[in-house]
Task: structure prediction
Amino acid sequence: MDLRVRALETVLAAKGYIDPAALDVLIDTYQTRIGPRNGARVVARSWCDPVFRDWLLADATAAIASLGYSGRQGEHMHAVQNTPTCHNMVVCTLCSCYPWPVLGLPPTWYKSAPYRSRAVRDPRGVLADFGVVLPAETEIRVWDSTAELRYLVIPQRPVGSGHLNEEQLAALVTRDSMIGTGLARSPGAAP
Ligand code: FE
Result:
């Protein structure tokens, strides 16, 4: 795969279709400037501000854009909220569709065939592999991401986080908790 990508890049650059410097800027942007910290700020705001949370659930694209996060691979967003009785988890069964503006680039496992097939067949088993064991009566909803619509999971606000401000809350929101393969960290838990 690495060789194929390099070969393709070389040919496209030689033909003048792409500028390697522009490609470097794009890759650096998604690796360092855009990432799960953006999504964590969205989640923390929704935990602190019920009006924002309602907006996020009604029109995620607009609510997320109001915090400055929009663009490629995030043109149409939908937010799903975890509750004590329902846990949401996201997969792209076809390929690797993922909300770049809020989560950055997808982790390798998200793109792997085993995750993509098992997430729908055995979501509880996949969650267990990630160390997440939910009560048997908790409903698990699996959302199949597409190029047209991408999902952001709003994890449950951790118990004992009532005294934290928005920035401190954002630090508890992990990437996996926004995909649904993890939970938000408890205050005081090791990062
Ligand atoms: Fe996809």
Observations:
- The two ends are 33 Å apart (CA to CA).
